[in-house]
Amino acid sequence: MQTLPANPPISAAPHGTTPAGAGAKVEALHEIGRRLAEEDSLETVLAKIVELINAFIRCDSCFVYVLDDDHLILRASKNPHPGSVNHIKLKIGEGITGWVAEHRTPVAVSNEASKDSRFQAFSELPEDKFEAFLSVPILSRGRLVGIINVQHQSPHEHSAQEIQWLSTIGFLVGSEVELARMESEISLLSDRLETRKVVERAKGLLQRQLGIDEETAYLTLQKQCRQRRLSMKKVAEAIVLADDIKRTQNHPTRH
Length: 255
Prior knowledge:
alpha+beta, Beta-Lactamase, Arc Repressor Mutant, subunit A, 2 domains, seven-stranded antiparallel beta sheet, 49% helix
């Protein structure tokens, strides 16, 4: 098991290995900057990070965890795990990933990673049986943003350059991940506010049209959601739209 200093020197790698030469380093850094410079959702940013890691480091698995409050949530994976992405959560200090988050220090295990005393297994992830494990923190202005993990099915001795290169990616993408996460949260809060506004308006319409109280109006909305298999927002918008159309028909605009 290797534990590296929290601030290793910058290094870069072409496909499959680490590079030798300034030209390859500049090209790699330029590619990272170019891909992350676009305005993208958090999911797209994380997918690009996984793609970049896979292009420069040959590995069998790559996970990206993002810090949300005091938990690390699995948000992206090289291999498809629809039932695990956005669902697996780790506390700071839990498993090797949580240890790296707590200490903000890269860890490399060359073989029998599952026997490491810090290892945390998830039965739904086949990668739990992989031999080699490399984990580095994603940082933004000294604050923890997330964790990058790469794994190998067979024993793999991680070179110093390989660890340094992955650590460098963790440094470079930290601000983009944090910005995309904040924008995602703002978008979610905005959507919740819009939903609340349209639901309140729909409840008011039902109360006036059906002569019912607020609680009954809300239960009526819930019943329609279940019967039609639609979200509360969709049902509320339909009620509001129907009322707008009715009022327009009753009071047509004169020209």
